[in-house]
């Protein structure tokens, strides 16, 4: 697997014990223990990655193994070879067949910037909450 273009690379022979933070996209394929904070950037965990960390990112793509909680303002992609043990809080989540996830998922809507159209329209008011129930 080739790292995404314009990403900083930490290779599979690298071992890191401590926190990682930065303001650029990062590709990790090594053995990392600590917290990872790239709140405005994309993190890609390669197929050889062995990560034990809480991760705070904009977007996350996982090919390897991650034990820890994920906080992503954008999208989390768990690819076919991914293994994640921990809770995920994200704007969007994609899980490929054969990926493994053990934890809870909470999807949160990303706050969109108001547009000219949305500023002119009024919200729809409803006096009753929407309740969905399975068919009997």
From TrEMBL:
Polar residues bias located where? 115-125
Instruction: Identify the stretch(es) annotated as Disordered.
Output: 115-136
| Domain of life according to the entry | Bacteria
InterPro entries, alphabetized: BacA/B
Q: Which Pfam families match?
A: Bactofilin
- Family to which the UniProt record says this protein belongs: Belongs to the bactofilin family.
**What is this protein's record name?**
Polymer-forming cytoskeletal protein
